[in-house]
Amino acid sequence: MSADRERRPGPTVRTRVHELTSSGERRHEDRLATEEPLEIRLTWPGAPARRVWVTMRTPGHDFELAAGWLVHEGLARPADISGVAYCTDRDLEPAQEFNVVTVTLAVPPATDPGHRHSTQATGSSACGVCGKDSISAALDVADGARWPGPLPEPDVVRRLPGLLREKQTVFERTGGVHAAGLFTAAGVPLVVREDVGRHNAVDKVTGARVLAGSGPAEAALVVSGRAGFELVQKAVTAGTGALVAVGAPTSLAVHLAEQAGLAVFGFTSADRCVRYC
């Protein structure tokens, strides 16, 4: 294995733990979900690369995360993205080599990244809207092409979290990541991604479709946690027909979904789901 491969962070890391239970104690090896920063830089013809976002994420599918984030933020249309690569700046330390991604656009960004996204903007793995420079900017939903096909029937909706769970390999090993998946109306999984940040997982899903040359719109986006407004914002931008959440939606999430014509299902399990709009 090359030195470069050895430096590249993986989705999990080993650790030693001391487990304490009612029946005794034991020491053993365990796995933690990896959490590291990812800096996203943006360049286009005639413009030098500039930092537009830094977020904490689980390494893996980094190019998808960067592409999906740009689309969800309204900075780029899928067809505008001409390339994604890890940064090769000489001043980067070896450990950071795979934590900086540069996205190249074929045309200038759809909105000014210098206005909406400070070059010092950062976000935690728990937040999908940090760095917005006003409340109105955070609520500004870039409405993508709406999904023209059918939505999943209720019996399919109730099965979706279970189908998502079957694909959550990192969660199986660590118990410490969220998941998002894009499904057809019949419940066929198209893309499933995991990350410590629920919004990152959704960015990766859209980015996977964009970089594969497919449209990001589909019948249902399924998420392993609650349905906050930032996830509705991303689903609407991608053109998804329905957002299916294991947890509850928020009031603002439902309000935005109603305005955009997005169906929202919460408290979804094998025997129950609640449709809010």
Please describe the topology of this protein.
Layout lengths: L2 H5 L4 E10 L2 E10 L2 E9 L2 E11 L4 H11 L8 E6 L13 E6 L7 H4 L5 E2 L11 H5 L14 H12 L3 H6 L3 E6 L5 E7 L2 H14 L8 E4 L5 H10 L3 E4 L5 H10 L2 E7 L2 E4 L2
Entry summary:
With 277 residues, the protein is an alpha/beta fold.
Describe the structure.
This protein has 277 residues and is of the alpha/beta class. The chain has three domains: 3-33, no CATH class; 36-139, no CATH class; 154-275, Cytidine Deaminase, domain 2 (3-Layer(aba) Sandwich). It contains nine helices and 13 strands. The protein has helices at 3-7, 62-72, 113-116, 135-139, 154-165, 169-174, 198-211, 229-238, 251-260; strands at 12-21, 24-33, 36-44, 47-57, 81-86, 100-105, 122-123, 178-183, 189-195, 220-223, 242-245, 263-269, 272-275. It has a six-stranded mixed sheet. It has a five-stranded mixed sheet with strand order 5-6-3-4-7, with helices on one face. A two-stranded antiparallel sheet has the order 1-2. α7 (198-211) runs parallel beside α8 (229-238) and α8 (229-238) packs parallel to α9 (251-260). The longest helix has 14 residues, at 198-211. Mean pLDDT is 88; it is low at 1-5 and 115-120.
